[in-house]
Amino acid sequence: MKQETSNMNRRNALKGLGTTVATLVVAPTIAGGTKVEGDSQPAVLENPVNKYPQPPYPKQKQPHPGLASKMDPLPDHGEKSYKGSGRLQGRKALITGGDSGIGRAAAIAYAREGADVAINYLPAEEEDAQQVIKLIEQAGRKAVAIPGDITDKEFCQKLVEKTVAQLGGLDILVNNAGYQKSNLSIMDISDESFDATMKTNIYALFWITKAALLHLPEGASIIATTSVQAYDPSENLFDYAQTKAANVAYVKSLSKQLGPKGIRVNGVSPGPVWTPLQVCGGQEQDKLENFGGDTPLQRAGQPAELASIFVQLADNGGSYATGQIYGAAGGGGHP
Ligand code: NAD
Ligand code: MG
């Protein structure tokens, strides 16, 4: 893609500039009389506007649920960039929708931070899922693949049981899987489609959370992926937006129940992020071309740009954050 090439050139030019600036700023410093030895590599400043491909993006369509490996440009889930520092050493995580997109970025980051990770996904996504399993194992952690449909209550219960059995416990639950189908009119939404959206985005969290609470210890963390759609719904996402508002209420209510029990519940609210969900019916084709172009950062976000938020919300270090929604929307949307 022409646009991408020029972006890449600008990116490289900026990287060079960033190195010079960063060398001045991030040399070892004396803080409170103690010498702080950081990474020997100086941090490279990155301009978030030019960091990733900008619109226009090529039109593309895949059958649901879509594969990250077939997207153009390929999404960045942090495969080459995420560096861990032991923040989740020995933790045990279950991530729904961990095969691709935002869930894959969280899975890679968790493994590199020292956690064992189970991922759930639909059987049609085996190819994407196997790439993630390999990456978790390359990080030296245990990886568990549990394909299955979370619109099925019994499967949700089995998913948690299998995770606990294979990881030897569970202390991070990431409810991230989601179904989004664009419809320009409420009149076009069939009962079946409405039901699939509600079951995937609301019921599954209810079933999986109830099953997980039988196992989650004090200090555990639950994270739900909500959306800017919860706050400012698009006309074409009438049913989906309602489920994402429900996810905010899930976080706000459940955190009040579980706070006294020592379990934190938080949410992540992404804006437009370059993932399969958007190219397999989640978005109108004309909107896809300029996806994220109307945000102050003028482009779609990449899954890798959200990974550290999922780490922060799971980490013991974030222990006073519960009932919160952390946003990453390129400067648009809420919260
Ligand atoms: P994605 O397509 O990579 O991930 C969604 C995943 O949901 C799929 O990989 C699939 O494994 C899973 N899934 C869907 N239906 C399922 C079912 N019935 N059973 C089991 N798994 C099922 O896309 P993504 O954008 O990374 O989506 C992750 C979350 O982010 C979703 O909750 C979505 O609503 C939310 N979100 C995405 C955006 C965005 O712009 N991409 C913006 C805001 C919120
Ligand atoms: Mg997927």
Automatic annotation (TrEMBL):
This is Dehydrogenase. SUPFAM superfamilies: NAD(P)-binding Rossmann-fold domains. The keyword Repressor does not apply. Keywords: Oxidoreductase. The keyword Oxidoreductase applies. It holds the Pfam family adh_short_C2. Residues 31-89 are annotated as: Disordered. Residues 73-82 have a biased composition (Basic and acidic residues). Belongs to the short-chain dehydrogenases/reductases (SDR) family. PANTHER family: NADPH-DEPENDENT ALDEHYDE REDUCTASE 1, CHLOROPLASTIC (PTHR48107:SF16), NADPH-DEPENDENT ALDEHYDE REDUCTASE-LIKE PROTEIN, CHLOROPLASTIC-RELATED (PTHR48107).
